[in-house]
Write a structure and sequence with these properties.
The chain has about 160 residues and is of the alpha+beta class. The chain is about 25% helix and about 25% strand. It is built from four helices and seven strands. It has a three-stranded antiparallel sheet with strand order 3-2-7, covered by helices on one side. Strands 1-4 form a two-stranded antiparallel ribbon. A two-stranded antiparallel sheet has the order 5-6. Strand 2 and strand 3 form a beta hairpin. The chain is globular. The N and C termini lie far apart (about 55 Å).
Length: about 160
């Protein structure tokens, strides 16, 4: 059989998975979702606190990867992780705070592991800070955009 001809013994889901992966790599995507893309610097900012004057801000990082199995099944979820930002701006002590589906929490935690922040400051001196980040993984919504404070309040009321 010629290598460019599909093998009839492949699982039917494999062809769908391959199509999704190939389509996901395209430059244009109708929903604007592009997994593992660079996020805007400053798009994630820590909450105000008495422990710092200036909250930590995202300097660089990639958005989480949508779990392929969940994408193929059309599943959406919300996940929230908590973590510490050190004086060097690196994340540590990452933990899943809440996830409707465990796999989404893991994918968000994996992304956060590699994020770099401008550390929080107190009187101009970098200090250790803590943060939580919630994200919706949705095929319809730009899943890698953090929830705004208004979206967080709406979701809390709807529970």
């Amino acid at each position: 059989m010629h290598p460019s001809i599909a093998c009839p013994r492949l699982a039917p889901g494999l062809a769908v998975a391959l199509a999704v992966v190939l389509a996901g790599g395209c430059a244009s995507n109708e929903t604007g979702q592009r997994a593992n893309r660079w996020m805007e610097p400053g798009s994630i900012v820590g909450q105000p606190s008495e422990q710092w004057d200036v909250p930590a801000r995202l300097a660089r990082g990639r958005s989480p990867v949508y779990p392929i199995g969940q994408l193929l099944e059309g599943r959406s979820s919300r996940a929230e992780v908590g973590f510490t930002v050190g004086i060097d701006g690196r994340t540590k002590d990452i933990r899943v705070v809440q996830a409707d589906r465990e796999v989404f929490g893991r994918h968000l935690a994996i992304a956060v592991r590699d994020w770099q922040f401008e550390p929080a400051q107190r009187n101009g001196i970098p200090v250790v800070s803590t943060m939580t980040v919630a994200m919706d993984f949705s095929i319809q919504r730009n899943f890698d955009a953090p929830l705004s404070p208004d979206e967080k309040r709406q979701r809390a009321r709807s529970r």
